[in-house]
Every structure is written in C-alpha cells, then in structure tokens.
Specification:
Layout (H helix, E strand, L loop, with lengths): L4 E2 L10 H18 L7 E5 L2 E5 L3 H9 L4 E2 L1 H11 L3 H6 L4 E3 L5 E3 L10 H13 L3 H17 L10 E4 L5 E4 H18 L2 H6 L3 H16 L8 H19 L10 H12 L4 H16 L2 H14 L1 H11 L3 E2 L9 E2 L2 H6 L2 H14 L3 E6 L3 E3 L2 E6 L4 E5 L1 H4 L2 H4 L39 H18 L33 E2 L1
Parallel strand pairs: 1-2, 3-14
Antiparallel strand pairs: 2-3, 4-11, 5-6, 7-8, 8-15, 9-10, 11-14, 12-13
Helix pairs in contact: 5-11, 6-7, 6-19, 7-13, 9-10, 10-12, 13-14, 13-16, 13-19
Length: 491
C-alpha cells in the first residue's frame, strides 16, 4: 500500500503554491503528465497542506458514491463561514433537525433516525424549486417576461451602450449585455422588484465586482489585498439585510425557495445579518455562471456567420411572428426551444466544456482507495479536489482537437442531440451534490441567446475584432470570463 505521489517542489511550506496561484489548471496538467498521464491520484502541496488531485472519470464516479469516507460537508461549512456565518451558526446548519410550527425546522441534538440537517433539507428544497415542476415553471415565467422586456431595441439599458446613431444602430458591450440582462432578470425572478428598485439599485454593480474577485475569498486573501472584493461583499450583504428587515408585504414576489430558506434560518436562531450573508452566498452561486456562459455562446455565434444563420434557422419555429417585425416576436413554444434546438444545445454544452473550470471537493474521513489505483490509500484529514477541466480536455474522450471549440461536438451523426451520460463531462458535478440549478441554467441561457439572436441584427462593431481571450489564470471554480479589455463589442 502507498500514498498518492506528491508533485515535487523546492520551497518548504509554500510547496506548489506559486504554480497553483498562477494557473492551477496548468499546474494540474503538468503534474498529470509528470506522473506519466496514468490518471492515478497524485498530490500537490499548498502552504504546507497536502491536496489530493483526482483526474480519472472512473475515480470521480467512485468519489460520488463513497459518501461515508469522502465528505462534502466540510467544504460547505468553510464556504459558509467565509461568507460571514459564525462558527456556531455554521455548526447549527449541519445538526439534525426536528419539525416546528409552520413547516420550518430547528436543531435538536437528541434527534436520531430520519430527520435531516438544515443543509440536507435545503438541498431537497433546491430540487423542489429548481427541478422541472410547477415551482420552476413559475420562476421561469417571471424570468422569461423580464428577458422579453429587456431584449427590445428600445429597452436596451443605457449602461451597456457604447455609442448609438439615428440609423437604428447601437454599439454595445457583449459582456455588459449578458450580465445586465441575466443578473437583473434572475434577481427579480427570485426576489421580486423591491431589492433592486427600492433597497439597492447598485446591487448588480457590486455583484460584478465581487464575482470578479470572489476567488480571493476562497483563498482567504487579507482585506488589504482584496479591498474591492470585500467592500462589494459587505455592501451586498448590507443590501440583503435591509431587504430582509422589511415586512413581507413590502417585499412581494420572492420565490418559494427564498422565503423557505429565510424561515428555516430564523428557526435556527440566526439573526437577520447572518441570514443575509447566507442569502448572498446563494445569490452568488445562482448568478455567477449564466452570464459568462451566454457571453461565450453569443461570441462564437457572432464570430461565425455560417453558425449564426444556422442557429437562426433552427430557432425560427420557436417564435410567433409579430406585426412589428422579428425584433418584437414572442417565443411561441418554450418546450420546443428547450427540447428541439439540437444545435443551440450543442453550442451550450461545448461552451460548458471549453470555458468552465468547476472543481469538486471532498474531505477524506476514513482510509479509502479509488479504482484507478486500488493500492493507493487516501488518508483521513486530507482534502480531495476533482478539477473537472482535466476530464473535459481528455483526448481519449473528446478526440485530438480538444482545445478547438466545435459547435457540433455534441451532435449525433444525423444532427440529433447526443444522449447524456458521458462520465468525462461533469459541468455540474454529480452524485448527491449534482447541481440542482442545471435545469434553470439551460432555460436562462437558451431563452436569452435565442431572443438576442432572433430579434437583433447583430454583428461585430469592428470587422477586425479579435475573438475574446479566455482568462484562465483566475481559479474561479466555475465559468471563466474573458480577459479584461477583450470583452467584445457588437452592434
């Protein structure tokens, strides 16, 4: 029996820190090749801590199944505290619950058997809200109405417009367009209008600043080294605190999951400030990825005129012609848009493969091994990371041109959608921690991209524009954005 091989380093304590911070994806690539590309578990050392790295699809599947020896809870506990939960409240969220009046729950250390912790109960509630069903349908109805209003030529927000003329031409920032529409629509769909219209009109600006530097929170940067991020976080939490301090009748429109989370956290004895920090954490998780995903999808469509025309042809049957022309056409069949647009779906999945850097995390609680190397024993107390980008760029699974964006990669030989089930494709994780928001993500992005492409005659503002450069150096843990200064402009 042996332990995972450690990647060599020269400076004690620091270990592989510099490579990890500079470009962790490249560090994992280097380490995997260094150990012969066997895809057996190896380890890197960061500030004296040994981290196990898992890059084999079969090993990742095994990690999902072994919930006893490989625990996800410590990761959530640490993130909750990073966002502002006290240790006492973070601990409460993992204690088993007993039901109380009104369907909420409160901790009870004596409970045994079937009752769940707040975290477990919340995960089930996320599924009720975000998996297909009446609650998701209501959420997407509100969201769709917002996107419809914002994606009108005369409804473009002034903040995204770089220049305009009397000839019905407006030059806009694509990243500002995707973030402005999707963040606003999502915020109003989840919280109603009060949060943005009354409490904090600048919430979305603060969110963008926080999201851009949020990786520094994960790595516990001191405030002096990440002031803008921490200031944006504090201002955002303060906005949610003001919102949650209002009587319920003065903040109508909040979706079921938000009111349920608030009620259950109050039942735990958490005060409004602590609840606000947790609601902001959830708000960030919900909103940090969709606008970047939409950005890359639209960028590829606009930079490829043939692809643009093919997408327009495919989505044409999803819209009802309007007397005012295509720029006011309404979506006639949401189900057709979501289920029958195989090319749009392929672009969506390929964007998730190429531009996403999700990272699964577990803590080893008891000795165990993985299928790729049964003789390698993972030791308790170590953190285990699953950088899914390592399997998304595996040539065995995806062919030789793994770094090329292929809009048709997820199409079958007859142009049909490929069936799901590829264990080398994990954009939303898997197992019991499979992201419950994956159904909402497709709905959000599909509606936005389809409306934008169908309603607007969109082209590059400058024919010589270069394709935006991916910012791979930020350890985002999710969708990656473009390098600043290469956001892309369209007209």
């Amino acid at each position: 029996m042996r332990s995972p091989q450690p990647l060599p380093y020269y400076v004690p304590i620091l270990g592989n820190l510099m490579g990890f911070m500079k470009d962790f994806n490249e560090l994992f690539n280097y380490a995997r090749i260094h150990f012969g590309n066997t895809r057996q578990p190896f380890s890197v050392t960061v500030l004296g801590e040994e981290l196990y790295i898992v890059t084999s699809p079969s090993d990742i599947s095994s990690v999902y199944k072994n919930t006893k020896a490989l625990d996800f809870d410590p990761f959530i506990h640490n993130v909750a505290m990073a966002f502002g939960a006290s240790r006492i409240n973070a601990d409460k969220m993992f204690e088993r619950m007993r039901s109380s009046r009104g369907g909420s729950a409160e901790p009870d250390a004596k409970v045994s058997g079937s009752p769940k912790s707040f975290i477990e109960e919340s995960h089930e509630n996320y599924k009720l809200q975000l998996h297909p069903g009446p609650k998701l349908e209501e959420l997407q109805r509100v969201f769709l109405s917002r996107v419809d209003a914002y994606l009108q030529f005369d409804g473009l927000a002034s903040r995204i417009i770089r220049s305009s003329s009397e000839s019905q031409v407006k030059v806009v920032s694509l990243l500002d367009w995707t973030s402005g529409v999707l963040l606003d629509a999502s915020t109003r769909a989840f919280f109603g209008d009060t949060l943005l219209d009354v409490v904090q009109p600048n919430l979305l600006d603060n969110f963008i600043v926080f999201d851009d530097g949020s990786w520094k929170l994960n790595y516990q940067y001191p405030r002096i080294a990440a002031k803008a991020m921490y200031d944006a976080k504090d201002e955002s939490i303060a906005a949610f605190e003001s919102y949650l301090s209002l009587p319920h009748e003065k903040r109508p429109g909040a979706t079921w999951i938000i009111t349920t989370l608030e009620s259950d956290m109050r039942a735990l004895g958490m005060d409004t400030q602590q609840i606000s920090s947790m609601i902001f954490m959830i708000y960030w998780v919900v909103n940090a990825n969709a606008y970047k995903l939409a950005f890359w999808m639209v960028a590829h469509i606009v930079f490829d005129h043939t692809l643009l025309e093919a997408v327009r042809d495919e989505i044409s049957s999803c819209f009802t012609p309007s007397p005012g022309g295509p720029h006011t056409d309404q979506i006639a069949s949401l189900s057709r848009l979501l289920e029958k647009t195989s090319l749009l779906s392929s672009i969506y999945h390929e964007s998730l493969r190429v531009y996403n850097a999700p990272m699964g995390a577990r803590t080893v609680t008891s000795p165990c091994s993985l299928p790729s190397a049964p003789d390698i024993i993972l030791q308790p107390g170590r953190k285990l990371l699953m950088p899914y980008r390592q399997i998304h760029f595996d040539p065995i699974a995806w062919g030789r041109e793994i770094h090329r964006f292929d809009a048709k990669r997820f199409l079958g030989p007859s142009g049909e959608k490929l069936k799901s089930g590829n264990t080398s494709f994990r954009p939303f994780g898997g197992g019991s921690t499979h992201c419950p928001g994956r159904f909402l993500a497709w709905r959000e992005v599909a509606v936005f991209v389809a409306c934008l492409i169908w309603r607007f005659d969109i082209e590059l503002a400058h024919a010589e524009s270069e394709f935006p450069v991916l910012d791979e150096r930020k350890p985002s843990g999710g969708m990656m954005g473009p390098v600043k200064g290469s956001k892309g402009k369209s007209s």
